[in-house]
Design goal:
Elements lengths: L2 H18 L3 H11 L6 H10 L3 H11 L10
Helix pairs in contact: 2-4, 3-4
Protein name: DUF4287 domain-containing protein
InterPro entries: DUF4287 (IPR025629)
C-alpha cells in the first residue's frame, strides 16, 4: 500500500482524540467493552451512535479487526 495512505492513517490517529474526544485505543476498548453490532451494522452504529465520520469509523473498525486502512484491499 502506498505511503500516502499510511501517512493519512497516522494523521487521523494522531488527531483522533481532538476530533472525537477519544484516542484510537480508547475507541477500541469501548467497542470491545460495550459490544458492537456484527456485519454492516457496525459502520452505521459508530456513525449514528457517536457522530463519527465515515473515514474515522472505518479506521476504528479496521483496527478492531486487527488491520489498518493501509492494509485494507480496495
Amino acid at each position: 500500500m502506498s505511503s500516502s495512505v499510511r501517512n493519512m492513517e497516522e494523521k487521523m490517529i494522531q488527531s483522533m482524540q481532538k476530533r472525537t474526544g477519544r484516542t484510537l485505543e480508547q475507541w477500541l476498548e469501548k467497542a470491545k467493552r460495550d459490544g458492537i453490532p456484527e456485519g454492516k451494522g457496525r459502520l452505521k452504529w459508530l456513525k449514528e451512535e457517536y457522530g463519527l465520520g465515515q473515514s474515522t469509523a472505518y479506521l476504528i473498525l479496521n483496527h478492531l479487526d486487527g488491520g489498518s486502512l493501509a492494509s485494507r484491499r480496495v
